[in-house]
């Protein structure tokens, strides 16, 4: 009598969803940032002492949105019309530390005379401000390293000023293209031979804040964000 074949038991394969790192916890000193003053020229700026980090970028790069994402939702005014930031806006973290929102550049609909005036104040601040210890440069991840971006990077390198680039609106790109763009920009910055670093960032999704906070804390001589709270480009 033929023996009955034993049925093969098929092992079920269970696919687990990819685990995402938990969002970085916002350091208290950024949450308590408050508006200090707006200055039309370098002469009207606060006393040149303490520590300042400037946020700079094209008018449509999401500079004010990034500032709000890293600090308070209503700290910096945002506008649907690029080019509205015409003043140097100062925000205080404590008595000695400030964040600075510089006028956006490169918006074609702004009159040429006004663009030249903004460029003059922008260049004067970056070149002459002694308490400026670093710059956060905002670039649209889809259109990075414009001619004016590169000019400002050269100015920063000439005075040994570190620059951390946020490739904003990273949520507009799929994960693969976003990482490729990050690697390409990182390589170009390396060839410029300045103290430059770069990361992906999305104000809309709040992604990349942990890495940015860690960089700012290093410049401002605050204790760094804990490793388990850091969110990097790998989490995008």
Characterization of the model:
The protein has one domain: P-loop containing nucleotide triphosphate hydrolases (Rossmann fold, 3-Layer(aba) Sandwich). Helix content is 30%, strand content 18%. It is built from six helices and seven strands; from the N terminus they run αββαββαβαβαβα. The protein has helices spanning 28-31, 63-70, 112-128, 147-158, 175-192, 209-219; strands at residues 34-39, 51-57, 88-92, 97-101, 132-140, 163-168, 196-200. A seven-stranded mixed β-sheet has the order 1-3-4-2-5-6-7, with helices on both faces. A hairpin with a 4-residue loop joins strand 3 (88-92) and strand 4. The longest helix has 18 residues, at 175-192. 38% of the residues are buried.
């Amino acid at each position: 009598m033929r023996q009955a074949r034993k049925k093969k038991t098929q092992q079920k394969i269970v696919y687990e969803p990819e685990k995402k790192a938990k969002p970085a916890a916002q350091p208290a000193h950024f949450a308590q940032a408050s508006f200090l003053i707006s200055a039309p020229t370098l002469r009207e700026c606060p006393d040149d002492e303490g520590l300042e980090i400037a946020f700079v970028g094209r008018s449509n790069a999401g500079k004010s949105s990034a500032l709000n994402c890293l600090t308070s939702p209503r700290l910096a005014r945002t506008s649907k019309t690029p080019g509205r930031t015409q003043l140097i806006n100062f925000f205080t973290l404590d008595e000695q530390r400030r964040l600075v929102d510089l006028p956006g550049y490169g918006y074609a609909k702004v009159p040429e005379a006004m663009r030249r005036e903004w460029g003059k104040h922008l260049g004067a601040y970056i070149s002459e401000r002694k308490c400026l210890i670093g710059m956060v440069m905002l670039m649209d991840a889809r259109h990075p390293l414009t001619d004016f971006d590169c000019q400002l990077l050269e100015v920063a390198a000439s005075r040994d000023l570190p620059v951390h680039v946020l490739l904003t609106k990273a949520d507009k790109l799929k994960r693969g293209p976003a990482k490729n763009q990050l690697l390409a920009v990182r390589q170009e910055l390396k060839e410029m031979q300045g103290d430059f670093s770069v990361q992906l960032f999305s104000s809309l999704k709040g992604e990349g804040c942990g890495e940015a906070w860690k960089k700012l804390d290093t410049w401002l001589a605050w204790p760094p964000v804990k490793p388990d709270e850091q969110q990097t480009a790998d989490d995008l």
